[in-house]
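Q: Here's a chain of 287 amino acids. Please give me its 3D structure as tokens.
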Amino acid sequence: MGASAALAISGLPFKGPLGAARVGFIEGQYVFNPKRSEMENSYLDMVIAGSDSAVIMVESEAKELTEDQMLGGILFAHQEMQESIKAIEEMAKEVGKEPFEYEPKTIDENLLKAVEENFTDKITEAYSIKDKQERVQFIAGIKNKLIEEKLPEDEDSEVSESDLLDAFKKVEKRIVRTRLLNGEARIDGRDLDTVRPIFVEAGLLQTPMVPLYLREVKLKAIVAATLGSPRQAQLIDALEGEFKDQFMLHYNFPPYSVGEASFLAGPKRREIGQGKARKKSFRSGTS
């Protein structure tokens, strides 16, 4: 909310303002921005961000609510955040700076059309390849061919390699988006309602812990759980106060485990975000 308000009065090109809301579901009723004490009895913890006309982001955890109840929470939050959006709009009218004129980079329509006419079939073929590494190599080959065929030999030409790749990316995005909107199968062959099969093997490690081996089609993970006493709970000192967390989740994957070459350091944004999502999914089954 603070960032949205700051951008709204800054004069920068910003299609806002945006609002946000937290929603709980307590005793069969939705609660807007509930207190922490109230959340202890809530069946829902949902955070929504959106504009005056659309929902942009949803982050939530719940205790087995129905689809209608989850959808109701989203609609309730979007309705409640309108007051804060209007307040930011009024503030921007009073103290906002003059809009900053900005012209975004545009892609030449003739170049875009040429890429679309000559490479749509190849890009479509690429996204029918289920194996990720094979698909990446195939797309890289298309890009190289595009640069070889379409990049002018004249160094003074206005068309650069960057322009070609921007046009390629736009065409590529359009093709993938159209496939999804038309209800076609995902890249790996699944339809929109199919979840990847997950295989679980217990007792992998002969230790006092509770080990599991999880395997997806492309993902493998070793999961170990350790039980302790309440005295070993993690002490958290956060903005909302001091409390103890009795469920700790250490979620990490080193760079080499995902095919990347990088230095070993603390958890990155991807690990932190995915770790929080995993923790939410596990917590409802352990509390």
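Q: Can you summarize the key feature?
A: The CA atoms of residues 121 and 175 lie 10 Å apart.
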